[in-house]
Design a protein that fits this description.
alpha/beta; 9 strands; about 10% strand; binds iron/sulfur cluster
């Protein structure tokens, strides 16, 4: 199974984007069902002159598959202890920031405070520390969240299939595991130590979660670590692999851009808003049924602009520190946000663009 995926990733990473002509972009835009080669064309420099027709097609597909709905959710950081050394993340093990983990009592208060804001979809996050936030801790946190929220997502370290099954039984609905970069050499450079060094273990985590029975998985690439075009094409190959593996699953993409952090170890390249727009339109056209989320790493103006053009999911009222919804936070921030708006402000922005904010689109059986 993994061999086929690795072969597709190798192909995507070697794709010659510079060789794409306007005729190939136009052919890709005229297709009803796109191959990965067509997506490569839409991601190419040649497609930069086709953003308007891409936006029109993306808008139509988004409307057909998702109507005018925009799901709203908020993340809750449970802990920021981490044994990894990711060169782009404030939580890397050597960074001397304030670390914390929510106790059961804190967690109950945090969940109540978030629910009081109107949220019914919550994403629980941790760094990678089996000692501080191991599977037992995650299971309890998931169970508590599932008691109050219609949908519970997890963005935690890669787990074994039976561990995902435990979390699914506790109420986990979806799991997000972002590969960060699909480029093996770059992956090795930015993950020099710790369990995250294991590229293939992380790569197959979404498949393990699906095999454990979760309803959906999210995959993503962190834009700015290296050349973004190969990473986005590889991300789509990963998404297609998961869709074949589990055709009924709810699948989604995320394409966060790097943000400033406390204690950054390295400088990375920039991806412009225009390039991010092209990426989002291209992914929407290639995978019309996939969810697409846009985090508070992006500015309010840019997030609002993307409503209706491909995005299906927005976060609001975000804190990237540990807890902080009910009293002071218990650990420093993972990154510095660009959109500080609370839920009412994001909800109003969605309505102002003629869309419907959705707090719950699922009822537990
Ligand atoms: S990206 Fe995740 S695994 Fe890496 S240092 Fe940050 S919290 Fe830890």
């Amino acid at each position: 199974m993994i061999e086929n995926l690795l072969k597709d990733l190798q192909w995507a990473l070697a794709f010659d984007f510079e060789a794409i002509t306007p005729a190939k972009v136009e052919k890709a835009l005229s297709q009803e069902r796109l191959e990965l080669t067509d997506l490569g064309a839409l991601l190419s420099p040649a497609a930069e002159s086709y953003l308007e027709p891409m936006a029109q097609k993306a808008q139509t597909l988004t409307r057909n598959f998702f109507g005018r709905n925009i799901d709203l959710y908020t993340p809750l950081y449970l802990a920021n202890h981490c044994v990894n050394h990711c060169q782009y993340c404030a939580y890397h093990q050597q960074n001397p920031l304030r670390r914390g983990v929510l106790s059961r009592e804190d967690l109950v208060k945090e969940l109540a405070a978030i629910k009081a804001l109107g949220f019914r979809d919550i994403l629980l996050l941790t760094g990678e520390s089996r000692a501080r936030s191991g599977p037992d801790y995650l299971e309890e946190a998931t169970r508590l969240a599932a008691g109050s929220f219609a949908s519970v997502g997890l963005e935690v370290y890669p787990l074994k299939t039976p561990e995902y099954a435990r979390l699914k039984a506790a109420g986990a609905d979806y799991v997000c595991v972002y590969q960060e970069t699909y480029q093996p050499d770059l992956y090795a450079r930015v993950h020099p130590k710790g369990p995250k060094k294991n590229y293939q273990w992380r790569l197959m985590a979404p498949a393990r979660a699906l095999m454990a029975g979760v309803r959906g998985v999210g995959v993503g690439a962190l834009l700015g670590l290296g050349p973004f075009r190969p990473d986005v094409l590889a991300l789509a190959a990963h998404g297609r692999f998961l869709a074949h593996l589990s055709p009924a699953a709810e699948l989604s993409y995320s394409t966060p851009r790097l943000r400033p952090i406390l204690g950054a170890l390295n400088q990375f390249s920039q991806v412009s808003e225009k390039e991010l727009l092209q990426i989002i339109l291209a992914l929407r056209i290639f995978s019309p049924s996939f969810g697409l989320s846009l985090s508070t790493r992006e500015s309010p103006h840019f997030r609002d602009h993307l409503i209706g053009l491909g995005i299906t999911r927005l976060s609001a009222g975000v804190k990237t520190s540990v807890g902080g919804h009910d009293g002071p936070s218990q650990g420093d921030e993972q990154f510095i946000k660009s959109d500080e708006r609370d839920v009412n402000e994001v909800r109003a922005a969605i309505v102002a663009r003629g869309h419907q904010p959705v707090f719950a689109d699922y009822a537990r059986p």
